[in-house]
Amino acid sequence: MIKSVSVKNIALIDSLDFELGGNLNILSGETGAGKSLIIDALNFVLGERADRSLIRYGTDHAVVEALFEDYLTPQVERYMEEVGIDPEEVLIIRRKMSSDGKNECRINGRPSTLSVLKGLTELLVDIHGQHEHQSLVKPANHEGMLDGMGGASLASVKANVKALHAKYRVLIAEYSALGNESERERRLDVLSFQLKEIEDAGIAEGEEEELLEKRKRIRNTEKIISALSAARGLLEGYDGRSLGGDLKSASASLAGISSYDGRIDSVCDRLDAAKTEIEDISETLGDMMREVDFDAKGADALEERLELVRNIQRKYGGSYAAVKEFYENAAREAELLSGASERTAELEREIASVGKELSREAEKLGDMRRVQAEDFERAMTKELSDLGMGGTTFKVDILSDYAPENVGETGGDKVEFLISPNVGEPLKPLAKIISGGEMSRFMLALKNIVAGIDGIGTMVFDEIDTGISGHISAVVAEKMCNISRTRQVIAITHMPSLAAMADSHFLIAKSVKEGKTLTSLNLLEDDTDEVARLIGGNDYSSHAVPHAKEMKKWASDYKHSLAAARASAPTTH
Q: What three-state secondary structure class fits 210?
């Protein structure tokens, strides 16, 4: 449950800190006092979408922090383990939004993504606003609501259906990819041609670069040969002289004086080595001249080879690596298609087997849903009768098709809630028959049924008592009180009977201080006057206060009766 909330710079709220009780928390106040801001602040910290207009005027950021106690249900513990959050004795979630659009989310002081935060808070708090019925009237949501009441056994079968459906779709996809025999033959012909074309080309890694380098040399043959020839001429010599010969003569001249200076021998050795190196360089230059001349003669062949290499690479991916990958994939596909007849027959057997199992599990899931639907119909009929809709017929309509090709990941059922608010009228979808006041009562009935099922510790109701008055308002108050005995309830209301039932009653007020409009929230020690105001309006009569006291006594007696009933209930082990 939510133990405390801290709000800073949310719209008309400057700074607000409040603690909530564990049972029924009522928030009331005059119209325009800012009751919706409390819900906005809760929605914000729980991870709902928000824009910068929520930030209080004149400030650059808004911050809301909520502290949870006794929050670790099995579902919450599982989720926290999945996302890598270590459970602690208390849970603190904090969200900050800056005027530059930046969002900051923290869970127990550690940064978190908004999606992780929202995934966690959805297991902790259920907020029902005035317009939530829009999701209730959509048939697409009815199956999930029904399944949520089915417990672990239904969830297990549903998980089996999902796994089998995934396996079935994989097999179908593979079978479709193989195609029929004529399609396979056509595909094999294409693959065979492509593989042979690549094999015949026989291109090698780096070949294009090598060919381009050769072509560059060929296109500059004249310059290259001229430079090589000139260099070699200088080394070989002109007019009968050569650099090598001069080095040899120099060495011979020095040899005659070697007996007079011991260093001369080493100089002669160096001259001999230089002569050898010069001769080797000259030979290398000659070889290079012959190679260039040879390349030039094969210029046409080189251009043809380069065009072939480029064409293959362009056709099959744009590079040698892409061609290689294409070849390997094509070879695997060709091998698969070559043995496709056997694989097709095998797939047909697997599809039939998995499809049969999928149909069986989907039908099992459907049977469980029908049993659950009967229990749900009985419970809803009773709840609606208590809420003044005794003539209402509620029906969970389930249309089924368990052919494997028509079963989805949630089964083969189409679930829709139907209702007839009056005796003798036909059943119709919720959206077509139910009024605003009836929808509020329908939602309250639904919440009362699921109160002990979904494990969510806090429920928030934002003025869902709209359109409810008279005797039914007292019944609604009792229902809300019932829910609050097993979980924390936070309710914004205009209904005096519900306000009288409060375990903790907060008054929301608006005031002007130093030229600024501020919203405040105060816990009432005695809420008799506020209940009287709700009974009689701002100028409530002298009869309103006694009526409020009577209403408070009625609420107190009802809560005591609930406590006595719980105390006398047999203990189960």
A: helix
